[in-house]
Amino acid sequence: MLNRYPLWKYLLILLVFIVGVLYALPNLYPKDPAIQISAANSGASVGDSEMARVDQILEQAGIAVTSSESANGTGLVRLKNDSQQSAARDVVSKALGQGYTVALNLADSTPQWLQSIGAKPMNLGLDLRGGVHFLLEVDMDAAIDQRLDVNASAMREALRGEGIRYRNNTTGDNTIRFTFANAEDRSQARTLLSRQYNEFTFSNSDDGGPTLVMTLTEQAVNDIQDYAINQNLTTLRNRVNELGVSEPIVQRQGPNRIVVELPGVQDTAEAKRIVGATANLEFRLEASDSTSPDQQQAFEFRNDAGRKAALERDVIITGDRVSSASTSFDDSGRPQVNINLDGPGGSSMNRATRANIGRNMAVLYIEHKTRTRTVTRDGEQVEERIPYTERGIISLATIQSALGNQFRITGLDSPTEARELSLLLRSGSLAAPIYFAQERTIGPSLGQQNIDRGVMSVIVGLILVLAFMIVRYKGFGLIANIALAVNLTLLIAAMSILGATLTLPGIAGIVLTLGMAVDANVLVFERIREEMRSRSIQQAIHTGYERAFTAILDANITTLLVAIILFSIGTGPVKGFAVTLSLGILTSVFTGVMVSRALTNLVVGGKSLKKLWI
Fold first, then answer.
1. For the chain, what is the total number of helices (H) and then of strands (E)?
2. pLDDT value at position 241?
3. From the CA atom positions of the chain, what is the Rg in Å?
4. Band of pLDDT at residue 601, cut at 50, 70 and 90
5. Which alpha helices (H) appear in 499-572, and where do they start and end?
6. 408: nearest Cα among 423, 395, 391, 426
7. For residue range 373-387, what is the model confidence (pLDDT) as tens digits?
8. For 16-28, what is each residue's pLDDT tens digit?
9. At what angle do helices 140-161 and 183-196 cross, to 10 degrees?
């Protein structure tokens, strides 16, 4: 019989709709402003007694609390007003002291029965939820200098291994210079090093004695700079993941800049400190009496500026050999960082310590910073950024036995310093220093304003489309409107299930999807009106849906291809628009063809009609 679906199709459509409603429901429950309390010591936990104390502290401070709870050793306090979040954190942090960490949070308010089936709301982008936007600039000159220092250290070790003596060694201006006692030693060194370092061009100089000059090739410089950008991207992504930010954006912009967007982050100072930290570690032996003056450097201790120690220039390993790091406390209750090295790092550490038992080994903490000053250029005052590097010893201990892949770092001032150091070591060290070229904070109030405007645009667009379809197609317009509502529900559910991030361009994609969703019905209805001129009503309905399907499919495939291209080559907001558009196309084809047809079949299918309200 014409215009009748089998029962399984009706059940399938009903099942899809029910699932869509269930997974779209969490978006009706916005996240609550909250503060999260955790113990600074990994062995401690936050229990009911601590939460009762926190409630009392907030009550005395006049801060309204919705609820408080503790689970898995962590406390969570939900607040009634998001404007009181920062005040609540400061009050609780001051009252509890350094033994606890208090952070801002947004607590999920989805009912437990929805969480039990894995339903969760959509993630909101930076422009809707608020957060921070950083534009970071990578210091390419420092990346090259660091590579030169590493190569120079390896070259010195190679020369000593072959018994080739040199008098002086300097780096700078993309070159490494070795000065020898005679031309014969220089010739031997050139033969040895040229076989191992093909990224350099070699030349001889007699300025100040027989000197071997090694200059990086242009291709090598470009490779180092590309590596610095890519390695920094990887490291920053790891650090952002450590911060626990949902749907962050870390991407390259131009030849030497990186954009970092952290939606929902409200503690911008902590985010800036973690993201922008360029700390690294170097493990060096303390200089002995036999170490020549040109092969040692003196450094102050970080926690005791008046104390110094002379270290060898050669580096045993650096922080990039750390595979994992965690914090704990020693027998005296002082913070320490437990280190695990990768295979090559463990071998280097074992080789160096096995041959130097009884000597002291230092852990050198290196941090790249900048200071700004205002200068006058061409009659205008501009800010000039001056980079500098701070180096300080955090530990100097005697090697009691050969070390391997596991050991610990002591001498840290506070648990906070230990946590930050372990985080930086876990996420990796930066291949080159980065500086903040731009910082922008988007407050939650602005994000809420964007949400309100976006929702209003969807509502206005939906009302206009609904009104047009009713006026133009009457009863069939009502069927199209019902299918449109189902489409919007399924689109929101699909974005929630996939964990997609909703941004302002994404809302624009939803509005566009509303118009495209009824386009399929317009094609079908116009085809039915044409077929009614030569066929019966039931045959016209059947033929209209059958013959319009090809046109609907072709139109949506071409749009889907464009959306896929936008997603593959676009970044940030463009991807958000592409994701929403792609999902909207898929749901609109389903509702425009199957749901609309099912409703039509239920209303007029199999009936003897003399007139059709279309």
1. 16, 23
2. 67
3. 33
4. confident
5. 504-531, 537-569
6. 395
7. 777 777 777 767 677
8. 999 999 999 998 8
9. 120
The per-residue DSSP string of 3-19 comes to: T---HHHHHHHHHHHHH
Mean of all residue pLDDT scores within the chain:
82
Instruction: Using CA atoms of 25, 30, 35, 38 in order, give the dihedral in degrees to the nearest 10.
Output: 20
DSSP 570-610: --THHHHHHHHHHHHHHHHHHIIIIIHHHHHHHHHTT---S
Residue in 113, 10, 118 with CA at minimum distance from that of residue 493: 118
Rounded distance between C-alpha atoms, residue 565 and residue 78, angstroms = 42
- The answer on pLDDT for 6 being more than 80 is yes
* Dihedral (CA of 517, 519, 521, 524) sign: negative
Percent helix, strand, coil in the chain, to 5, is: 50, 25, 25
- In order of 108, 377, 382, 383, 410, the CA distances from 372 in angstroms are 41, 15, 10, 6, 33
Identity of the residue numbered 238: N
Give the pLDDT score at 278.
Answer: 61
H or E, element range at 452: helix 444-498
**Token duo for residue 560:** 């889907």
Strands 360-377 and 380-398: antiparallel
- Kindly tell me if the per-residue pLDDT of 509 is higher than 90: no
Q: Residue 471's beta-bridge partner residues?
A: none
Q: Which of 154, 95, 86 is nearest to 441 (CA)?
A: 86
> CB of 318 within 8 A of CB of 282?
yes
Which amino acid is residue 403, in one-letter code? L
Query: Mean of the pLDDT values across residues 176-203?
Result: 89
Lookup: tokens for 603: 């209303």
pLDDT value at 246 more than 60: no
The structure tokens 């029965």 sit at 113
Overall average pLDDT of the 133-162 stretch: 84
Helix (H) or strand (E) holding 66, with range, is strand 65-71
Q: How confident is the model at residue 14 (pLDDT cuts 50, 70, 90)?
A: very high
